[in-house]
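Hello,

Following up on my earlier ticket. Below are the two sequence lines again, exactly as submitted.
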Amino acid sequence: MIGKFLERSTYFLFTVPAIILYTLFFAYAVIVGIQYSFTDWNGISSSYNYVGFSNYVELWNNPNFRDSLLVTGKYAVMLVAGVMSLSLILALSLNSLKKLQTFTKSIYFVPAIISAVTISLIWDQIFVRVIPPIGQALNIMELFQSPLAHPKYALFAVVIVNIWQAVALPTLIFIAGLQSVPSELYEAGRIDGASTFNRFRYITFPFLIPTITVNMVLAIKSGITSFDYAYTLTGGGPIKSTNVIGIMIYNDAFQNLKFAMANAESVILFIVIAVLSFIQIKLTRKGGVH
Amino acid sequence: MKRTAKLSVTAMLLMSIILTACGKEDAAENGNASKSDVVKIEFFQQQGEEAIQNAYHEIIADFTKENPNIVINMNTVPDPVKVLTSRFATNDIPPLFTDFPTQLQFKEKVKNGYIENLSDQPFIKDVNEKYLDMTAADDGGYYSLPYARNYMAVYYNIDLFEQNNVNIPTTYAEFIEACKLFQSKGITPLYLPLKDVGHIFQATNIAFAPGGVEEMVKVANGEGQVEGNQVFLEFAKKLKELTQYANKDAFGVSAQMMQEAFANGQAAMIISGSYGRGNIKLANPNLKFGAFPLPNDTVDTTTALSGVNASLSISAKAKPEEKEAALTFLKYIARPEVAQKWSDLSGEPSIIKGTTYGDQYLQPILDFIDNGRVHDWMSSTLQSAIVTELYSTTQGYLINNETPEQYLKNIDETIKLNAVK
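Thanks for your patience. The regenerated structure is below:
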């Protein structure tokens, strides 16, 4: 009897620590956050009132929130496109290296171990001290000032910095995916006269689909929840051109004392990410070698 | 069966380790604390400028020699205002912290009982009354020890002024004349940090639009508009005119970079807060520089932005021994000789009675503040949500080269959109 119980519960018991930690640090926080989004709490006051959906209604009518969602969308699209294409190219190149492959891979991984804030501070100096002299020497008007100073280019500049760091991990994941392709398939392809592109399209790509899914989900999530690069490089400026939703939430909560409103913004962000991830996983589930 | 039992035991052990890990650490810490009488308190200090941090470090080191049973750990973080708010929101209030007692946010904290009332403490009487009065809470009590005043002013390079025979401008016309002269000689007249446009906006608005802040408060209350306001229009035109004499890369430059550039003699003037002085001195100890108020059309209408700097407060939620330790520190730091040392090291003008400001070139701005027209920082009367959003509106005006009329319209819209009802 006891034996049977132990046998049944053992594997469940193994999951209990993770469930407790997850519930404590994630589920509870989410529930409390949703609860606050229906109040008028300012973050400091010891009491608050329930105001129903009025925070959500106010957000709907707030042009800053719409702009911020748009900026976040643009940011995420640029980040995903940049990270996915660059990391795939890097992975293919690194995987085809005959010598010093491990050493080269570790060099490409270095940006991933530096903190985002440090990287941003370094790039900020590059943008403000290195780019303008180059712009003046080449007489390119757009580069006379730091790209972060111009609302047209600031978002692009922030994304470049983010991509510079963010390609490392997906590259490694792609390399792992590439190494799972059996070499005899390539051999067979070659014998059958398949071109390089066709070998990639019909042999490599199907094996890469699971890793593409993982990388894509990670990139979309990191694009939509991005905060650190834009905050350190521009603080959301100039003229809110890099005011991603993460910065808006942070400022509304801790600067503008609209804590409940910030929670409503977070809830909307949560829903957006959940929907996007769901669609993305559904779309990429079909096909590929698992 | 045996394997299953072993696995079960391992799983349960894992769980118990996780559940008890935190408790063990606490127990160990409590044990150590009871063995000795040393009280450790965190001092959340908001001013990140290197010179100010160094001054506090020195004062804390001196204090520890006199009070070996109190250990003060100063904690200075980037973006401290928001970090402190988040700590209040999560009920993790540092026992000792600096804050801005004239601002509406501070008054909200007082109203909710988070901050210790210091009205009856003897050291409160050591503070210059003019500044102490500015810090009174809504109930008339004092909840912080105001330690220094601050101001926004034009810092000027004395050598460049002397070499080019430029006198200190006392009117806006003279100021522009001086800018033109420097420009004609290939010297950058004014180094502006428009990436951090906030304090430039505040300083210029208070200088060029007397009564402007009060007008904006009316807009927030739904009682008026600045669109069409002649005084505001003048302010908008002057603000834009200043950018004609500024460094070309102004929109990419931060306040810290401006201080460095000025310290290295790259510009004749900057519009800076008093907090910048220490950093300029650190970057170039030999630079001779003075300060004057940003002038308006006439001497009589010139108004300087000046207020109470970060003041020291004690958390009402702290443990009794922490409060006691924090109070001991405040009593120590309020001594005139300690305040004088702090002022000399930080470059900040102390408001503790019996101290003097050891900089003959900057004394004139302090005299002006004492005797002339001054206005406090905007966040003392306008909600900070509005003030910070106006920074963005101002950036838009300057970067997009909007008309002054459009700028005023945008100011109205920004205020209305961000006013907390």
